Amino acid sequence: MELFISDLDGTLLDSQAQLSPVSLKILRMLLSDGLPFTVASARTPFSALPLLASLPLRLPWILMNGALLYDPVRQSFPDFVPLSPQAQKILAQAEERCGISGLLFTLEEGRLRCHCSPAAPPAAQHYFDWTALAPYPALWNGFGRRQAAELVSRPLLYGMYLDDRPQRLEQMASLLDGRGLTLDFYRDRYTEERWYLEVYSAQASKGLALARLQHMGAFTHIVAFGDGQNDLALFDACDEGYAVANACPALKAHADGIIPSNEADGVAVYLSKRWNCETDFDRQSLHSEYRR
After folding, report:
1. Which InterPro entries does the record associate with it (predicted)?
2. Which of 33, 77, 173, 177 has a C-alpha 20 to 30 A away from that of 290?
């Protein structure tokens, strides 16, 4: 059984962080026809669930760069990778030393909770629209108000720190580098004056999460789509990996082929062509069109 899996931002989503009407129409049609499709994203369920609510996805999603799997049918989290106790202690020390507070995500009573200290910047305090999240029973509604040092007894999965200036985040990243954590430090693609530092277990990645997902289904051939550095591990775990035209050079060099950009609905158009290929000739033609 084939499985198709796509990154979200920069890959399946357009420059406005939305599914375009074209992609939405194509994907809804393909999913109703039985397309085995899911997503692998750095996004948390707090942003991914409302975003994908219009798609009838039934297979588990890979979220938080592989730190969490979400089952959209049972509305639960069948698998997760928390920070080790030592890594969590190191994160708490870095918060205190740098004077930084951010968004911290824990699993509590089977639901995902986001903590935001009162000392966090205003952008973090207003990061989520809680009214839009009310329909999702897998999520705690409203912030917990704890910092990393106060969460030692709870599974801490992910830390997200944001600032309009990169200097303090750079300092924090230097303290955390090589300490049993994976760091993703970047300028936001949607708000250029904002910077992010995302922190999660070194034992979590999209590729490792895909291996866990394979144990849940009889997938014999996996095809992935992506645009960024964090998709390298996903491509390594797949049989085929396709980079969108707007992808970073490293992923393009690693890909089996290049498909049209996210602005041109590249993933949805490719899937439509491939899912409707009924003969070996058609499939070979498709491969020659997009393969490197």
Report:
1. HAD-like_sf, HAD_sf
2. 33
Determine the 3-state secondary structure of 170 from DSSP.
Answer: helix
User: For the packed helices 85-98 and 167-176, what is the interaxial angle rounded to 10 degrees?
Assistant: 150
131, two tokens: 């009214």
Q: Which residues pair with 201 in a beta bridge?
A: 181
Number of other residues whose CB lies within 10 A of the CB of residue 137:
11
Q: Which residues of the chain are modeled with pLDDT < 50?
A: none
Tokens of 24: 């939405």
How far apart, in whole angstroms, are the C-alpha atoms of residue 104 and residue 127? 12
Q: 216, 224, 205, 209: which is closest to 3 by C-alpha?
A: 224
Among 248, 254, 285, residue whose Cα is nearest residue 270 = 285
Interhelix angle 266-275/21-32, nearest 10 degrees: 30
Residue 202 is encoded by which pair of tokens?
């070194």
Helices (H), 99-184: 122-125, 130-133, 167-176
Q: How much is the pLDDT for 289?
A: 83
pLDDT at 283: 64
The residues that bridge with 38 in the sheet, in sequence order, are 5
Distance of alpha carbon 262 from alpha carbon 282, whole angstroms: 24
- The helices-and-strands tally (H runs, E runs) of the chain is 11, 13
Residues 284, 256, 236, 225, CA torsion sign: negative
CA nearest neighbour of 23 among 39, 45, 44 = 39
Give residue 290's pLDDT: 84
Give the pLDDT of residue 127: 93
Q: What is the DSSP letter of 165?
A: S
How far is 61 from 69, CA to CA, in rounded Å? 6
Question: Other CB atoms closer than 10 Å to residue 74's CB: what's the count?
Answer: 10
- Residue 280, SS3 per DSSP: helix
Other Cβ atoms within 10 Å of 238 Cβ, number:
24
Model pLDDT, residue 285: 74
